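Supplementary Note 2. Why include the ligand at all?

Several targets in our set were suspected to adopt different conformations when bound, so apo predictions alone were not considered sufficient. For every target with a known small-molecule partner we therefore ran a joint prediction. The input for adenosine monophosphate is given below.
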Amino acid sequence: MLKNLENFKVLGLNDEILQAIERSGFEEPTSIQYKTLPLILEGRDLLIEAQTGSGKTACFAWPLLQKISAAKTSEKNTIQALVLTPTRELALQVSGAFYRFGEFQTNKVSVLTVIGGESIEQQTRVLADGVDIVVATPGRLLDLIGQKVLSLSDIKFLVLDEADKILDLGFAAELDLVLQEISSMRQNLFFSATYPDKVLDIARRISATPEHLKIEDDTPTVENIFQRVIEVNKDNRGMLLRHLIVQEKWKNALIFVSSKTAAGNLAEKLKKTGVRAGAIHGDLSQPERNKALSDFKDKKIDFLVATDVAARGIDINKLLLVINFDLPRSPADYIHRIGRTGRAGEKGLAVTFIGHEDQEHFKLIEKRAQINLEREQVAGFELTGEAPETVRGAAPVKGKRKSKKDKARELAGKKS
Ligand code: AMP
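The joint prediction is reproduced in C-alpha cell form.
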C-alpha cells in the first residue's frame, strides 16, 4: 500500500474505499476527515461545523458506503440511508461521490438521486427494485413519500448536508414533514457552515445527544485565494471582463451575477464576442442546468455565469478563478462564492468588480469578513464620474435637499 494511504487507513477505512481514494489521487485526509471519520465509523451522532470545500462529503460518503456494504444481505433492499441536500446540484454531486468511492466494492451499494426536474416515473421504478441510499432535495422526496413509493421508516443513517442552506432556502416545513417519516433508531450526521438557533433547533429534534465539532482548519480556504477588487463603472463591466479575458488569458471561471436574467444576458453577450460561455440559474430546466455544468466541467465552455442559488454546493475540481460581476448580498455569500476556488489546498483567484454604488456595501462585506483589500483600476476602464448621492434613513426633509430648479439656477450661475 502507498505510504500516504496509511493516513486514511488508520482512520478505519477498509481496502475497497482505500482503493477508490488512491484512484482519486488524494494524498492526505483533510482536517475534517481526520477529526470526524473515526467517530462516524464508530456510529456517533455529530453536528459538524464545516465549510464547503473542506472535504466534508467524503466524511459521510466513505463511512456510509463501508457500513452499508458490510451489512448487505441478499434480501431485497430497504432504504438504509437518506442524505438531504438544499439543491439539486449538490444532490447530484453527492451521488457522484457515492458512485466514485463505491466503485471497488464487491457488495455494491445502490444510490438513487431524488430531485425535481427529472422523471418521477424513473425514480419510482428504481425505488421499486430496491435502493440503499437516497440522496434527495426535500420537495421531490415528499412527493414520493406521498405516493407511498418510498418509505423512510427503516433508515439507519440520516445526513443533513448544508443544513443551514436547507433552512435558508425555505425548506423548514418540508424538513419537518420528512423528519416525521423517519425511524428513531439511526445515526444522525448534521453538516452546516453555521449554527444559528433555527439550525440548532432542528438538530436538537433530530438527535438527543449530538457531539458538536468545529473544524478549525489550519489553512482556511480563503487564505489560499488571492483576492482582487477592481473599480469600474457599472456600464463598463462587460467590456472590462472581455478585455481581461483576452489580456490576462482568463479561463475556467465561475462568474457570479445577482439575478437569473443577468446570468442569461451576460452569457449571451460573452458568446456574441466569441467567448465560450454558458449560464446556470433557476429558470433553466434540470437537463439544461446539468448540461451547463457538465460542459463547464468537461471544458467545452470556459465561463459559467451563475446566480448564488444555482451555484450553491457546486463542486468543480481545480476552479482557478471566481468573478463577482455583481456583488453578493452578504459577507457569508462573498466567502461562499470565492470558496469555489482555491479548494482542498489549491491556489485560487477571486476578482470582484465594484462601481460607485457598491462602495459602501463592499466596505461592509470587508468589515464583516475581516478583510481589507486594495482597490485597483484597469487602464481604459477607470472608474469615472461622481458617486450617486445616497439618502440615508428617513425620507429627505423637504427644503434640505436642492430642488431641480435650485440646481438649474446654480448651474446657470456658474456658467455666467
Ligand atoms: P467537499 O467539501 O466535500 O465539497 O470537497 C471539496 C473537494 O475536495 C472535492 O473536490 C473533493 O473531491 C476533494 N477532496 C475530498 N477529500 C480530499 C482529500 N483528502 N484530499 C484532497 N482532496 C479532497
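The mean pLDDT is 85. The chain has two domains: 3-214, 221-376. Comparable summaries for the other entries are listed in the accompanying table.
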